[in-house]
Amino acid sequence: MTLNSSRSSIIDARREQVARLRLRGLSMRAIASEVGSDAGTVCRDIATLRREWRENALRSTTELKSQQLAEIAEVKRVAWEGDDPDLVLKGIKLETDICGTNAPTEQVITINELNTFASQIVEIINDEVSDEVTRQRIAERIMAIKGRG
What is the pLDDT of residue 133? Predict the structure, then answer.
């Protein structure tokens, strides 16, 4: 085994452990302590893992959408042949839902929901940001925005 492949194996093993711990809800600091690495390394590992997870999810989602759209197209084709306009319209509705081309709906957020959301963000920042000064500045900015609501 070469030095590069050995190093790569060590990194892969650490990232696997970081992924398991992160998926269990542990903070970056707790993960760093558990795997014996510094928080910066764990932060980079999590960023890499999120990128990989996102790419895999997008690939899986694209494949699933393609299959669903092909199935709906076949149902619509049979519906047209069978002179079933209701089924054609249902197929069109499903296509627009899958593709996101249906009309957007308005989302209304109450002040209480916004305040709850802001408080949750502050909690996440306190848990995830290791630099106290940065954490405090971000929290103050969020709370100032919250106060304007």
Answer: 83
